[in-house]
Amino acid sequence: MNIIICGVGGNGVILTTRILAEAAMKEGFNVRIGASHGLAIRGGTVVSYLRIGSDAKGVIMPQRSGDILLAFEPLEALRQMKLLKDNAKVLLNNEPYVGVDAHLGLSDYPEIDEIVSRLSETQELVEIEASKLAIKAGSQVMTNVVMLGSLASSEELPIKRDTILETILDMVPPQTVESNKRAFEYGEQAFQEKQN
Question: Among 29, 114, 163, 188, which is least packed by CB within 10 angstroms?
Answer without folding.
Answer: 114
